[in-house]
Amino acid sequence: MSHDIPQRLFLDTNIYIIGVANQDSYERKILESVGFLQSSSVEVIVSEELLDQILRVSKRLYNKE
C-alpha cells in the first residue's frame, strides 16, 4: 500500500453531529484521529444523503442552518 494514495473512510452521521457538538465525546476523538478537523491524508467520504441527514439533525438541535 502506497502512502501517496489517500485512505478512504465512511463515518456514520452521528459521528459528525456528536463529534462537532461535543468536544469531550468519543465521536470527537474519532474525528480528530482521522484528521477531519485538520488537513489529513485520509479522504473522508460524505454522501449527499449523509449531508442531508446532518443538516436535518443540526437544524433540530440548533434551530438554524
Largest sheet: 2 strands, parallel
Q: Strand share of the residues?
A: 5-15%
Rounded mean pLDDT is 79
Structural class by sheet pairing and helices? alpha+beta
Beta strand count:
2
Alpha plus pi helix count? 3
* Multimeric state: single chain
Helix content: 40-55%
Spatial order of the strands forming the largest sheet: 1-2
Can you write the helix and strand succession as a string?
A: EHHEH
What are the low-pLDDT stretches, counting only 5+ consecutive residues below 50? none
Cα-to-Cα separation, first versus last residue: 40 Å
Overall 3D shape? globular
Q: Using the CA coordinates, give the radius of gyration.
A: 13 Å
Summarize the SSE layout with pairings:
Elements: E1 7-10, H1 13-21, H2 26-33, E2 42-45, H3 48-62
Parallel strand pairs: 1-2
Helix pairs in contact: 1-2, 1-3
Give keywords.
65 residues, alpha+beta, two-stranded parallel ribbon, 3 helices, 49% helix, 12% strand
Short description:
By secondary structure, the protein is an alpha+beta fold. It has a two-stranded parallel ribbon.
How would you describe what is shown here?
With 65 residues, the chain is α+β, with helices and mostly antiparallel strands. It is 49% helix and 12% strand. It is built from three helices and two strands. The protein has helices at 13-21, 26-33, 48-62, and strands spanning 7-10, 42-45. The chain has a two-stranded parallel ribbon with strand order 1-2. Helix 1 packs across helix 2 (26-33) and helix 1 packs parallel to helix 3 (48-62). The radius of gyration is 13 Å and the shape is globular. The mean pLDDT is 79.
